[in-house]
Amino acid sequence: MKKKFINLSTTQIIMLSFLAVIFIGSLILTLPISTVEGSRVSYSDALFTATTATCVTGLVTLPTVTTWSFFGQVVILCLIQLGGLGVVTVVSGFMIALHKKIGITDRLLLQDAFNLNTLSGLVKFVKKVITGTILVEGIGALLYMTVFVPEFGVRGIWISIFNSVSAFCNAGIDIIAENSLCNYAHNPMINFTTCMLIIVGGIGYIVWWDLIRVLSLIKKQGLQCFKRLTMHSKIAIWMTVLLILSGTLAFFVLEYNNPLTIGEETLFNKLQISFFQSVTTRTAGFATVPQENLTNASAMVSMIFMFVGGSPVGTAGGVKTVTIAVLLITASSMIKNKNEITVFNRSIHQKAVKKAITVFSMSFTIMMVSSILLALVTDAPLVDILYETVSATATVGLTRNLTATLNIWGKLIIIVTMYLGRVGPISLALVLNSKKEKWNTVKTPYEEISVG
Fold first, then answer.
1. Which end of the chain has fewer beta carbons closer than 10 Å to its terminal beta carbon, N or C?
2. Which run of H or E residues covers position 152?
3. What is the pLDDT of residues 291-315, one digit of tens each?
4. pTM of this structure
């Protein structure tokens, strides 16, 4: 048995670790102590909740605030933190804290978990990730307390901690009300804190440390220091800013006269609600307006933004900003008939292009298959079905009130979709490709084909 476990690839171990956490979490959530007195939860709902928490999605079949006891909420929060950071990262963190040696197998696991290209400095990287996560979540909790403690008293402390972890991990699960953050659509502190946590968690840890490195040079080099950012950081930052601003403008224009969302709001509230919608669709899942009230045009924009998601090596889901950027840059280079794929005076390796195509293709396939299957088992409007499956694939958590109405088959479809969306299409491809490529000095003949 031990030999078989050792022979598992790092990708398979990571995928199985998520499955193990989901299964254990679902069993704990079925215990009477996990629910409020008088509530009865089926195993399918417990499994769904454990999956949505571990996969930091946010779709729920039962209201979190009224279904789960304090103990159940603690379990859900632990699952969110495990899912956001990654099981391998948390376990490695405990090993480091206990001064246990991190072997080569553990380092390989960490390398795959963070999708890094080197084994160098992994232990230091994990320490910084865990320390940075605790610091940012702590700041977020303190900011939330300025609103929630006056409103809820001592319970406001727990709400603030829960919301901070959930927002940073891009989970979108809250214990405030059954309508997410709709009651706080006009509250700048809640909007700012939530958006800040979502963006910081979704931008990626690599960008964190790169920005800190560059900012240390600002006294000597001024704003010129930002030119020293790595190409990855530049792409992630520019794409994040572009998506947030374009999303804000799109929702502001498309919903401007919609009385069910922002049509009757003041100009300031229209802007902050539009900004929040732009940020939360990037895999966070909190809502300050009912998603079913969005116009069809806004719903389509939301689905595009959900599918894109956040940036690599962070807590966000989706195909990732850098993936989309690589595909757009590649298309631009082909149109301009360039020999190289370049951006910021640097060329992009063909391997990155192939990986971007694979991630996009498999995510799109998962989403489409899930949509077709869900359409078979429910008679909901097509836009609601697509919204649900895109949200599950990209681990977002936004819904047009469809999740709570799903039958057992619908729940199973979304459970599998959330899991595949979290572990990553590229991981799925690696697991399915059990046969290693055989190197051959004899190249296969090629032949021209017509494309487009």
1. C
2. helix 122-152
3. 999 999 999 999 999 999 999 888 8
4. 0.90
